[in-house]
Amino acid sequence: MDVMVEAQRIMQVEKLLREREIYYEVTVNDTAVVSHSPHRARSPMGIIQRPRSPIKRAMDWKDFYPLHVIYNFMDFLEVQFPSTCTVSCIGKSVEGRDIKMLKISNSDASNTAVWLDGAIHSREWISTSVVTYIADHLARNFDELPGSITNKDWYFVPIVNPDGYHHTHILDRMWRKNRARVGNNITGVDLNRNFSHFWGRGAGECSSGDPYHINYRGTEPFSEPESAAVKDLILYSGTPFKIFLTFHSYSEVISFPWCYTADPCMDYVTLLEGGTIMAKAIYETNGRMYKVGNFKDLMYYACGTSIDWSYGVARIPFSYLVELRSKEHRFLLPKEQILDCCREVLNGIKALAQFVDTKKCLNHAVISKRKSTM
């Protein structure tokens, strides 16, 4: 449709359309120059705006993209590769936006599953780039990839926090939390303090009860629809998840539980080995050094995190929080580094997938040997 807007309201209407993610284009800036067709409204002080269809094309990872482009990309993969790619909505955000998930699978009932998510902290744009890049690579090359990839169902949620992510693109680049309200104020909740495992312990950097603190944990575990959507999909889908990967920036580390304590988790040695294999593959790609260790040793105390929950409650044995590039540029990673970051992490994930299968085979061998001696 064509919409004519008074000149003094042009900026107001454009802002309204952008905030509501309504696609439009300005076709005529001054309708006084439009021909005197009876089918066109005319005014010397107006514009005509025509909504347009979303762009359906693959991304090139040479830029950071807004929410609707990411979601269009996911839909594009589903259309292009319908035998392996399925897009679904796993929940709604505080402000009612879809939380979209892409599943890539050959539908083998014996598959285990891998979870990958990004932008739980909305200002960490490179996390979304990495998740979408890995999804694109798997979708386009699935039949040629090794068995350690094809014997798994891959679940991608590039943007866990769509409200916050959208907000960083239109108003506040450094916004971290979701867009939850306290009274009439949008204070937001740190979604990576809103998971149930040791929720609410500690204070400050660990977990804050102050709605205005950057690490505000919410009123209770899973008080936020975004974190609840992750929980519900993982716990109630009936899928045997073996790997959980949540991507952040910018410390260049590969960390694993625990976040809430310095005590080592039960599978410390195995998780350290898997993280080291990822770090080695990253280094061999671009010469980038990622530190490996449990989260508390490498970072700081944090309670109510997604990897403590995925490991301690959902029982996903290979749970990692990967802090991506870059310590030099912090959250404002130059566009020129996006592809390098994506490629190195892709190789790290491939190496981890192979390692997980190897450990599974070793565990089976140990069990068989024990049985034979009984």
Task: Explain what this protein looks like in three dimensions.
This protein has helices spanning 10-19, 67-80, 125-141, 147-150, 162-170, 225-236, 268-286, 295-298, 306-312, 338-372, and strands spanning 3-6, 25-28, 46-50, 85-92, 98-104, 112-117, 152-157, 181-182, 185-186, 241-249, 253-256, 291-294, 318-324. It is of the alpha/beta class and 374 residues long. The protein folds into two domains: 3-50, no CATH class; 67-365, Aminopeptidase. The strands form three sheets. Strands 4-5-7-6-10-13-11-12 form an eight-stranded mixed beta sheet, sandwiched between helices. Strands 1-3-2 form a three-stranded antiparallel beta sheet, with no helix packed on it. It has a two-stranded antiparallel sheet with strand order 8-9. Helix 2 packs parallel to helix 3. The model is unreliable at 33-55 and 364-374 (pLDDT under 50).
Key features of this structure:
single chain, 374 residues, alpha/beta, Aminopeptidase, 2 domains, eight-stranded mixed β-sheet, three-stranded antiparallel β-sheet, 10 helices
